[in-house]
Amino acid sequence: MYTNLSSHNDVEDTGRCVVIDTPALTEFDFTDHSGDSCSIDNTLCLEQVHIDVYLPSPDLDKFLRSFSAVLFLELGLNDEMILCCRTIKFSRLTMCKILPWDSDWMDSLVPFLKNIPKLKCLIVDYVRIRLTKNFNPC
Length: 138
Description:
Number of domains: 1
Order of helices and strands: EEEEEHEHEHE
Strand order of the largest sheet: 1-3-5-6-7-8
């Protein structure tokens, strides 16, 4: 679990970054509202990922591509994340939960879903209740 709730609204680039190497990790919870850069490598074992990134990150697209092979994905959606997800193919994803922030996520839903060929369950949650891998609403 990684959490950074600080916000740098006055500063465009703090120069800080998070680098994570996860060769054996199966579940990952990432919350960052700072806008700092983030990088993750060796994600072969990841099955379940929760991502909540509020401010744009300079390498968000690369960061999200690191999770393209997970089985369960929970995304706190903002406009930038929606644009990135439209171009990433989630080849193994079977369950996806999206938590829309104040974004126009509906326009990007169909292109996003086209990139998830094995999806069995989609949840849109405005209440923000955390799911666990044992939870199966579908």
